[in-house]
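step: validate -> pass
step: tokenize input -> pass
step: predict -> running
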Amino acid sequence: MAVNGAAIDDPIDFMFASSDMALDISFVGADQKPHEVTITRTLGEPIGLSFEPIKPRICSNKCIFCFVDQMPKGLRPSLCIKDEDYRLSFLFGNFITATNLSKADLSRIENLHLSPLYVSVHATDPRIRVEMLGNPNAPPVLPVLERLVKAGITLHTQIVLCPGINDGEVLERTVSDLALLFPGVQTVAIVPVGLTKFRAQLPEIEPVSPEYAAKLIQEMRPFQAQLRERLGRQVLLLSDEFYLMSSAMPPEASEYGAFEQIENGVGIVAAFLAEIDEALDRARRDRRALALSKAVLLTGKLASPIISQAVERLNRALGTRLSVAEVRNEFFGESVTVAGLLVGQDIGRAISEAGLADGDIALIPDVALEGDSEERKGDSRRFIDGITLGELKQKTGATVLAAPVCGSEFVRFLEELAPL
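step: predict -> pass
step: emit ->
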């Protein structure tokens, strides 16, 4: 109920109220009676309290590109939640549109300095943004961003690019408006709209083609160069999908700063390749070789060419015998090509097509499984379609292992899998 006299409504309140070494905690016990206890913290050790997950605020927008609305029925309930909660943005990096922020919410963000926040802008033109959000009551976004920046809140923003709607002059204006808010707005990421085959009764949106992606890269390069020179760092970032889709090499890792939007698919390839190179340099110095038997690394269509190049370098440097197999996403439709949206049934089919026999090793991207890195332990983890890792192993007969997509962690994974 309270810590050192400060009322506690959620884990964020507790985070800020529990910074002292001595904590007077008021609580209601299982007996429904009030209690008080004093805890003296040990420096560097957690307090030992766990919290129920925050019940998220539900989004009231009806975005024309909302991925949740493109999900088929029967998937696990957590995939169908449209959250719009600044607390989850602060705690976990979830993107919000900021359309439901009340005066009290803004004051709390400012008073507690909840930074950074992640904001879906899409367009700073109010009319275009209202159209994209499907919400006629959506307030203009710039005044909200300006207030947060003035309060010292760091923002990471994204633009979900829908061809013919928020590109061209609209996109240029959006990028320019957001760049004026630097250094409060630290990053502006452009990501392609994701379209599945389950878009019945939804607005028609033109998909991003390889030609469109290549043109966008060329159009944005002058803006990127200008902003980098003027601001001293790269602010405008394009999703890896644009580069992979157009068969263009993504920028070097140095262009992505601290990789603040890597969870948004921005800079994953650059980080992976840079970490692979670093790990291989270390392996060459140590003259390491791994005794790893035949293993097939399964990945999505987009990443397959880059992963294949990295695997060839790994095989030469470490003596491994890895190969790469592409998984077609027939569940959502072949226009969905990222590894994180691969489902169990499609992976199972790819394992069979790769000719893996009993005991052969199939490495799958761990981002395709539910849960964070600490929870990815055991065969009970599920893919989006509800199939568990254990069921996939039983069905295919292969030794299916979830491999990290981070380059340095992947090399360590191989070293643990096949010691010297």
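step: describe -> The chain has a mean pLDDT of 89.
step: cleanup -> pass
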